[in-house]
């Protein structure tokens, strides 16, 4: 079995005349906290969208747990938990209801859903908030709910696109600490995009993306 959780092989991508990614290659080891660091417009979000199977690369390929994002995107997706930069929670639903809805989308058996929701909430310190409406939570708590949702189907790899955007410094530190705990206690591979040096310093390794390279 490969020791790599993610392998990016010579990926390029264009949006019209603009070259967003220019022959990018790197690997992420299993159980690693890996950061994609760079300025806005450097190519981080484009690469994130390719790795999360939202778009196909113009050239090259990437493998997630050995599954090609080009030829086997459904298989690649099975190994991923994703936290997008923009919130994906329903503020009019309670915390536990958001997670249960996500479980249904992943076809988790109803008999298992309750235990998985309980486990995810406990892992993120959200048990006491399970019946709170999401719209009443602080930004930091909402990001923790996003992470709990992404972990519900127990993926070995987490992709996070600028996960601490909008958080105050204290909430950002707490969120990064949770990511470290996931890596250390459960062996989860975490890949995050960021332009915050504080987040980059928490990573085991970083790749710097600038002008698509």
Walk me through the structure.
The chain is 36% helix and 26% strand. It has 213 residues and is α/β, with parallel strands linked by helices. A five-stranded parallel beta sheet has the order 6-7-8-3-9, sandwiched between helices. Helix 3 (95-105) crosses helix 4, helix 4 crosses helix 5 (139-151) and helix 5 runs parallel beside helix 6 (169-186). The radius of gyration is 17 Å and the shape is globular. The model has no long low-confidence stretch (mean pLDDT 90).
In short:
This protein is of the alpha/beta class and 213 residues long. It has helices at 44-51, 73-78, 95-105, 110-123, 139-151, 169-186, 197-202, and strands spanning 4-15, 18-29, 33-37, 59-64, 67-68, 80-83, 157-161, 189-194, 205-208.
């Amino acid at each position: 079995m490969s020791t790599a959780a993610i392998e990016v092989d010579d990926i390029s991508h264009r949006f019209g005349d603009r070259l967003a990614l220019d022959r990018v290659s790197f690997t992420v080891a299993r159980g690693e906290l890996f950061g994609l660091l760079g300025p806005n417009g450097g190519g981080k979000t484009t690469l994130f969208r390719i790795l999360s199977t939202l778009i196909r690369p113009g050239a090259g390929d990437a493998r997630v747990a050995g599954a090609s994002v080009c030829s086997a995107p459904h298989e690649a997706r099975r190994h991923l938990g994703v936290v997008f930069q923009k919130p994906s929670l329903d503020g009019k639903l309670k915390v536990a209801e958001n997670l249960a809805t996500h479980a249904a989308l992943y076809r988790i058996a109803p008999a298992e859903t309750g235990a998985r929701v309980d486990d995810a909430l406990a892992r993120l310190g959200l048990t006491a908030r399970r019946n709170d409406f999401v719209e009443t939570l602080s930004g930091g708590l909402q990001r923790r709910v996003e992470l709990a949702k992404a972990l519900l189907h127990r993926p070995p790899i987490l992709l996070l696109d600028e996960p601490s955007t909008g958080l105050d410094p204290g909430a950002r530190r707490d969120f990064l600490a949770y990511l470290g705990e996931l890596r250390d206690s459960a062996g989860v591979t975490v890949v995050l995009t960021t332009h915050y040096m504080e987040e980059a310093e928490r990573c085991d390794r970083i790749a710097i993306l600038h002008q698509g390279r």
